[in-house]
Design a protein that fits this description.
- By secondary structure, the chain is an all-alpha fold.
- It has one domain.
- 80% of the residues lie in helices and 0% in strands.
- α1 packs antiparallel against α2 (38-61).
């Protein structure tokens, strides 16, 4: 079960790298503010799915010692990041104007989620 957990951690880190890297990649394309690209969208999706899988595996097999408050905070932030990335990407595909708040909100909250993961107890 430890191997499964480690594989899911690697996928979770790759999702984070895609999300934050996609945000940094989009930032260099100015002006105007572009829509979040598919790398950000799929990174956000992967973060939510693998985060849930990590909690499930930890609860089931690894002593069940999970900080549920931290998990709840990270899940809410991850869902907001995914919603912002999805909304911005959809608006960009339709040709509508994308609010900079969508792009910067998704990127900033992704970094906040990393900080919560690393700095919270």
């Amino acid at each position: 079960m430890t191997l499964l957990y480690d594989v899911v951690v690697v996928l979770h880190l790759l999702g984070m790298a895609a999300l934050v890297g996609g945000y940094l990649g989009v930032l260099v394309r100015r002006p105007p503010v572009p829509a979040p690209d598919l790398l950000m969208v799929w990174g956000a999706r992967l973060q939510v799915l693998t985060g849930l899988a990590l909690v499930g595996v930890a609860e089931a097999a690894l002593d069940g010692d999970v900080d549920h408050a931290r998990v709840a905070v990270k899940l809410v932030v991850a869902i907001v990041v995914a919603a912002l990335a999805e909304t911005g990407s959809a608006r960009g595909r339709r040709g509508a104007t994308v609010s900079p708040a969508l792009l910067h909100g998704a990127g900033a909250l992704a970094v906040v989620n990393v900080l919560v993961a690393v700095l919270w107890g």
